[in-house]
Amino acid sequence: MAEDKESTSVPLSQVDNGGQDLEDPVKSKSPPSSPNSSTRKACYYVLQSWVSKKFMTGCVVLFPVAVSFFVTWWFIQFVDGFFSPLYKRLGVEIFGLGFITSLLFVFFVGIFVSSWLGATLFWLGEWFIQRMPFVRHLYSASKQISSAISPDQNTTAFKEVAIIRHPRIGEYAFGFITSTVTLQRESEDEELCSVFVPTNHLYIGDIFLVSSKDIIRPNLSIREGIEIIVSGGMTMPQIITPLERVDRQAETIALNRLK
């Protein structure tokens, strides 16, 4: 019985310490972190953030360059493919010769269409295309876009860049003035402007009849407006000044010079 009591008895020192083994201090306490390890972790995080930041900066810089190079290379190969098979049959294989020939072909077409005979043939071709059921819609939409950026601003081109209040107060929409119309009323006539607001780049959009007094005309050209629409607003200038304010500032400067 004495031996059983001796085997089951626990020292008082171990009871006071919650039954933990005092002879193994490694298990009872975790080793303290050294300052060198914390410094290494901080340096690692700083280096990682610096590398990721510089990598993203390189991607941002090289992305437009790569896209421009790819599109330019694709355009050269596409245009070069029109006349390069003809040169291959003749035994002439020079890269870029078909591209130069295509550019010269477009140039001479522009000269020919500017003449009376070329304009007549072009009108006959348009008349034939307008009689085709499905092609005429595609042709009219593409002609509107090409007329907008054409140096010869004819009646079908975009007249001005416009900003209208749409769809509610405090919100504005970017569009182009295509034509003007007079709304006859009993009291007085009102001049309305037909504003084309693109909803899918320049191909599809809505047409709004807005009073000319409610239209904001910014100091932007037609090509700048098209660039803003195509880029999704990324080329939007930071400051937009209406043309009325620009004209007033010019008049003020002229009067000051006269004084």
Radius of gyration equals: 38 Å
Specify the overall morphology.
flat
- Residue-averaged pLDDT, rounded? 76
- Summed up, the helix count is 9
Number of strands: 4
- Chain oligomer state: single chain
Largest sheet: 4 strands, antiparallel
Could you give the order of strands across the largest sheet? 1-2-3-4
Order of helices and strands: HHHHHHHEEEEHH
Uncertain regions: pLDDT < 50 for 5+ in a row?
1-10, 12-24, 251-258
Q: Which bin fits the share of residues in helices?
A: 55-70%
Give the distance, in angstroms, between the N- and C-terminal Cα atoms: 126 Å
Range of strand content? 5-15%
Label the structural class.
alpha+beta
Task: Characterise this structure.
The chain has 259 residues and is of the alpha+beta class. 55% of the residues lie in helices and 14% in strands. Strands 1-2-3-4 form a 4-stranded antiparallel sheet, covered by helices on one side. A hairpin with a 6-residue loop joins strand 2 and strand 3. The model is unreliable at 1-10, 12-24 and 251-258 (pLDDT under 50).
Provide the descriptors you would attach to this structure in a database record.
single chain, 259 residues, alpha+beta, four-stranded antiparallel sheet, 9 helices, 4 strands, 55% helix, disordered N terminus, disordered C terminus
Please describe the topology of this protein.
Blueprint: H1 2-8, H2 12-16, H3 25-28, H4 35-89, H5 97-114, H6 116-130, H7 135-148, E1 160-165, E2 172-183, E3 190-200, E4 204-211, H8 222-230, H9 243-258
Helix pairs in contact: 4-5, 5-6
Give a short synopsis of this structure.
The chain has helices at residues 2-8, 12-16, 25-28, 35-89, 97-114, 116-130, 135-148, 222-230, 243-258; strands spanning 160-165, 172-183, 190-200, 204-211. The chain has 259 residues and is of the alpha+beta class.
